[in-house]
Design goal:
This protein has 331 residues and is an alpha/beta fold. 32% of the residues lie in helices and 21% in strands. It contains eleven helices and eleven strands. A seven-stranded mixed β-sheet has the order 6-7-8-3-9-10-11, with helices on both faces. The protein has a four-stranded antiparallel β-sheet with strand order 2-1-4-5.
């Protein structure tokens, strides 16, 4: 991981609440805390994996980081500039710097447009390139994702899932971004095709000096690609650390549960082992730790207090939000 310590995106106590407020008659409307009290630095050149069960807030956090959505609380800065301010004042610059790759490659591409038109759009609108510059850039982009130039004249439905995802990656790359948010980019693909796409991503990252935010519920994919990993549960980051620390020395009982229910190799934790019915009601969150109902270590204190995330048990760079973390193995 190059220049590992330069912060690119700094998230300070970010929060995103959906709904809420009051009716005309003063009755409180239900609110969902999709992201709560998230503090995290994304370092330049790293791949930060974000893992957790469906509904834990991964996509909401990613949308906040890319300026597609704004936090209802806290602050997010990109290279020191306030993202909320930037999103209003200079959305184009932000759109160029942070690009998105979605889970479903085919439906994220406009079916009525040729690949050439799709890939040219950011070159025209964001980079203001002339025709000759665009032709050169299109050639580079197709080469970067290992697709022959003939594919430029085809329509999205003519592509396989893996090819369409490579087009999705080329489109993200077209804007010459610094960060690419990859939201479940290989989840819809066959395992053999997943490996191809992950290899391309790995290659592009070093070639273009990119930073990746890699969201997935698939632990084996996150383990294979990430430098650091953030584990989310019910809108909060419950564990954060280097890939090796989180996978080899997990501290949070939830991380344990995820890892134990998906033993390596080929682990794929999807549901977290337990019944998802045990997830708290997002409209009626518990007072204390949201993991209490599923936790083997929970105490009365956990039921009434939300554990802060800190390095107390993990050491430098390895944080967990737990009053009673799993015991760290000694070498
Ligand atoms: N626009 C919205 N309006 C209301 N609630 C929302 C909205 N977007 C997300 N939520 C809620 O916020 C919580 C977090 O959702 P989010 O999509 O971020 O989770 P996720 O971890 O990305 O899940 P998945 O893996 O299923 O995409 C969920 O309870 C979800 O229902």
């Amino acid at each position: 991981m190059p220049e590992a310590n330069e912060t690119l995106i700094a998230i300070d106590r970010a929060e995103r609440i959906f709904g809420g407020g009051k009716t005309l008659f003063g009755k409180a409307l239900p609110a969902v805390h999709a992201v709560q009290d998230v503090t995290l630095d994304v370092k330049k050149g790293e791949t930060l994996g974000i893992v957790g069960e469906s509904g834990c807030g991964k996509s909401t956090l990613a949308r906040l980081l890319s300026g597609l959505d704004l936090p209802t609380g806290g602050k997010i800065t990109f290279e020191g500039r306030d993202l909320a301010h930037e999103a209003k004042k200079n959305p184009r610059a932000l759109a160029r710097q942070v690009q998105y790759v979605f889970q479903d490659p085919v439906s994220s591409l406009n079916p009525r447009k040729k690949i050439r038109t799709i890939l040219e759009a950011p070159l025209i609108h964001l980079l203001k390139m002339n025709k000759a510059e665009r032709a050169k850039r299109l050639e580079e982009l197709m080469d970067a994702v290992n697709l022959a130039p003939e594919f430029l004249e085809r329509y999205p439905h003519e592509f396989s899932g893996g090819q369409a995802q490579r087009i999705g990656i080329a489109r993200a790359l077209a804007a010459d971004p610094e960060v690419i948010v990859l939201d479940e980019p290989v989840s819809a693909l066959d395992v053999s095709v997943q490996a191809q796409v992950l290899n391309i991503l790995d290659d592009l990252k070093s070639r273009f000096g990119l930073t990746y935010l890699f969201i997935s519920h698939d632990l084996s994919v996150v383990e294979s690609i990430s430098d650091r990993v953030a584990v989310m549960y019910f809108g909060r980051i419950v564990e954060l650390g280097s890939r090796d620390a989180v996978f080899a020395e997990p501290l949070h009982p939830y991380t344990h549960l995820l890892l134990n229910s998906a033993p390596a190799p080929g682990r794929r934790a999807v549901s977290g082992g337990d019944s998802e019915a045990e997830l708290p009601d997002p409209y009626n969150p518990p007072k204390g730790c949201a993991f209490f109902a599923r936790c083997p270590n929970g105490t009365e204190h956990c039921q009434t207090h939300v554990p802060p995330i800190d390095e107390a048990q993990g050491g430098p760079g390895h944080e967990a939000a737990c009053f009673h973390p799993m015991v760290k193995r000694t070498a």
